[in-house]
Amino acid sequence: MKRHALLTRLHELLRPRTYFEVGVRTGGSLELSRTSTVAVDPVYEVQYEVQCDLHLVRTTSDEFFAREHPFAHFPEPIVDLAFIDGMHQAEYALRDFVNTERFCHPGSVVVFDDVLPRNVVEANRKRASHAWAGDVYKAVDTIRELRPDLVLLELDTEPTGTLVVLNPDPTSRVLTRAYDRIVPSYVTPDPQPVPEAYLTRARAIPAERLVDAPIWETLVAARRQPRAQASAAVRRALESAGLTGKAAA
Question: Which residues are registered as beta bridge partners of 111?
Fold first, then answer.
């Protein structure tokens, strides 16, 4: 499944009230939205028809999140579905996730693009290939290590893989506290030694397995529940669907 086909299905299944996108480029993913949308990119050149209630912001994601009310466009500052596809370096991707999670609830879905480079060159921190994943996979390692409360699903999408994060917790500050300590380890010269699990997609599952799982009504219902109750319900649904075991580890 291609990444935009995955996004299309997520929009259909989750029926998000709000959609947030980091990294617009030409608008190929933005044009999939039919809901209240905020999209951020300092150099976008939209070439697609967009059919949603849109706040399109020409700035960096850091500047956007530094605003007093970054999601003032939404009826409530809550993100139901997010797509992180900005700067393809781990420190930026991690920071975008940390900032986005603060506006999520347990039923929210956060998608990272470009987490499964197909070769070492695609994983360079400095772009040297047509398709460029960068070293976003390092941020995935950090989240997996420090946030076992989250469910991380690597999906075998084309061209360079996606990660879906489920059951986010807007109250967590674990990654924020660890950020300054961790980021220096990300900055290494190219070419970098990319873990085989990413190059071979050893943990990745077919995107169809996720979209066909009987979890989506639970995620939608979580919007109306207190956070602790919603989180427990989402976790039970994911466990029942077999999405919290080895494939999600």
Answer: 83, 164
